[in-house]
Each structure stands twice: as C-alpha cells, then as structure tokens.
C-alpha cells in the first residue's frame, strides 16, 4: 500500500504532539506521510523528534499557509483538526476570535478546493462543553445547549463540518490528561498540576460539584488511529459523532484524591468547595459526564479507567 497522507492541524498543541508521537511509533500495515500545522512557535524540537514530518505555518483565521501545504504535501487522505481556542475565559473575552479559530471555515474551504475533495476524511475535535451540564452521562443525541462562548463556538463548528463536509468524524472530548509532550506545552496539565500543588503541603481548594469524564491521551490517539484505519481500509464515508471520555465520572475533588492516594500526599490538604463559590469570569457546566457506549461499540475500544490513567501519567513523569 502506498503511503497515506495525514495532516494534523494544531500539531504543536497537547493532543497534536501526542498524535505525531503515536504515528511515529507505529509500523503497521499502512505507511503514513505526516505533516502538521503550527501557529505560535517554530517547531524545531518537533521536527527533530519526528524526522520526515513536514511543518507548515498556518493562520486559521485567514487560511494563509494552506496553499503551501497543497504545493509541498498535496491533498491529505486524512485531516485531524486539533486546533482550537480552548480556554473558556479567553473565548468569553473575545467571541469573534473564538468563532474564527474554532469554526474551521478556512480549513474546509481549502479542502473543498481539491477536485477529488470527498476522498479526504476530516476528524474534528469538539468538546463535552457543548452539553448544558444539568444531568449525568450525556448521549450524543442529547441536545447541545452550551452555557458559554467556548461551547457555543464548538457547536457552531460541529454544525459547519456536518453541513459542509461529507466524510467526517466529530469527537466530543472531555478533559484530556496524560504525560507531558516532546515540546512541553505552555498550559498546565491537570494531573501534573494537582501533584505539584499537593506536594507543596498547602491546603488547596477543589470543586466537589463539577463532573467530567477525563480521558487518557493515548486512548484519544488510539481512537483517532482506529478511525483513520477504518476509513483507509474500508473506504466507506462516515458521518460520525462520538463522545470521547473515560469510563469514570469524577469531580475535581475525586481527581485530586486519586493523585494523592497514588503519590502518598496528605488527603486533608484537599479542601472541597462548591464551584459557585469562585468567580472564574465564565459560566461553567456542572455535570457534563458522558455516556461512551457508542464509542465502545463502534470502535471496540475500552478507554482506560481514571485511576489507571493517573498511575500511567505519574509513572511517565517520574521517568523523565
């Protein structure tokens, strides 16, 4: 089989880097040519880590840079769109930027410029924050009623992809956690942050009344790889919407307790507080835990239990 072209949009972000790593580690039946886009910094460390991959500077607001990909890489067989303005407070402050980055207008317009454009699979990362947060274990068919600008921009993105593209998978991801990346990302990672603050020995407040289904990053990579292989081997177009979370519904308190138990931190340092007691400058949904039955049945993948993922994350950090 000739090499298939995979483009990771947002390749310097947390998931993007783990995807590049995942593709560089596999030597399966399908050979891949890899390219990725970046926006904020030139990725020499990534090019060193993943020789053979091509890097392209792209401005998602304007589409500047996509033409270079056409010339030097060609039409991709698969595009994985991980790029997003994903800090809810930043989206609240600048809704226009949230929309122009999170709704992949320039990306889809570029893909549409190829004559055989229906031969590209678009895997688009969405979020659990499309849900209102008033019940537990949302299903894909539940109405999307986001409570903040970030969630609204991601709903708009889902609708845009579904209307404008014929071959897609939309993945509504929960909090993604796991080991640090090859080129460390600037944002704090959830498990590492919890471990860091508890190791100082000071009391720290954690919300007891906000629930998510955090998903281990290598599971997300496996899900994306499985979708890609399904498309390339079967050749059947898909219009798929999947909740992508771990199997456990946990609060921030329970996340902190898991880290404390594994690392031996003092549990009394964890001070449970209500999310309503803190003004974060943005509305946050209370319970956006997700039912992942469809994911498990469609792809035959069972995501890692939360505590096991925490152990793997902390073990990876200890070996650095």
Description:
The protein is an alpha/beta fold and 320 residues long. 38% of the residues lie in helices and 18% in strands. It has twelve helices and 13 strands. The chain has helices at 14-25, 44-49, 66-72, 88-93, 95-102, 105-112, 149-164, 190-199, 217-234, 252-263, 293-299, 306-318, and strands at residues 4-9, 32-38, 54-57, 78-81, 121-127, 168-173, 176-177, 204-207, 211-212, 215-216, 239-244, 250-251, 270-273. The strands form four sheets. It has a seven-stranded parallel β-sheet with strand order 3-2-1-4-5-6-11, sandwiched between helices. The longest helix is centred in the last third of the chain and has 18 residues, at 217-234. The relative contact order is 0.15. The model has no long low-confidence stretch (mean pLDDT 95).
Average pLDDT score? 95
Q: What is the CA-CA span between the terminal residues? A: 37 Å
Binned strand content: 15-25%
> What order do the helices and strands follow?
EHEHEHEHHHEHEEHEEEHEEHEHH
Q: What's the alpha carbon Rg, rounded to whole Å?
A: 19 Å
The backbone outline, from C-alpha atoms, is: globular
Strand-pairing-aware structural class: alpha/beta
Estimate the helix proportion, in percent: 25-40%
- Number of helices, where a helix is a run of at least 4 consecutive DSSP H or I residues: 12
Which spans have pLDDT < 50 for at least 5 consecutive residues? none
């Amino acid at each position: 089989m000739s090499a298939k072209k995979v483009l990771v949009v947002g390749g310097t972000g947390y998931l993007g880097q783990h995807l590049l790593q995942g593709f560089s580690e596999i030597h399966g039946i399908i050979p891949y040519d890899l390219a990725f886009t970046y926006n904020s910094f030139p990725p020499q460390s990534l090019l060193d880590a993943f020789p053979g991959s091509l890097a392209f500077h792209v401005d998602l607001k304007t589409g500047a840079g996509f033409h270079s990909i056409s010339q030097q890489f060609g039409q991709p067989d698969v595009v994985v769109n991980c790029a997003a303005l994903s800090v809810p407070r930043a989206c609240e402050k600048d809704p226009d930027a949230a929309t122009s980055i999170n709704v992949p207008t320039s990306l889809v317009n570029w893909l549409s410029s190829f004559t055989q454009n229906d031969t590209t699979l678009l895997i688009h990362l969405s979020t659990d924050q499309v849900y209102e947060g008033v019940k537990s274990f949302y299903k894909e068919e539940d109405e999307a009623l986001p409570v903040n600008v970030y969630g609204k921009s991601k709903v708009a993105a889902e609708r845009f992809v579904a209307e404008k593209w014929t071959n897609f998978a939309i993945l509504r991801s929960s909090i993604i956690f796991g080991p640090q990346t090859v080129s460390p990302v600037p944002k704090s990672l959830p498990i590492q942050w919890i471990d860091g603050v508890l190791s100082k020995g000071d009391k720290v407040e954690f919300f007891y009344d906000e629930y998510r289904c955090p998903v281990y990053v290598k599971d997300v990579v496996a899900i994306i790889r499985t979708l890609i292989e399904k498309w390339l081997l079967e050749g059947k177009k898909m219009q798929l919407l999947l909740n992508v979370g771990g199997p456990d519904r946990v609060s921030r308190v329970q996340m902190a307790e898991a880290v404390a138990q594994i690392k031996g931190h003092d549990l009394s340092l964890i001070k449970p507080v209500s999310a309503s007691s803190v003004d974060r400058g943005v509305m946050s949904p209370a319970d956006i835990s997700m039912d992942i039955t469809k994911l498990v049945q469609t792809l035959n993948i069972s995501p890692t239990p939360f505590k096991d993922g925490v152990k793997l994350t902390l073990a990876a950090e200890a070996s650095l």
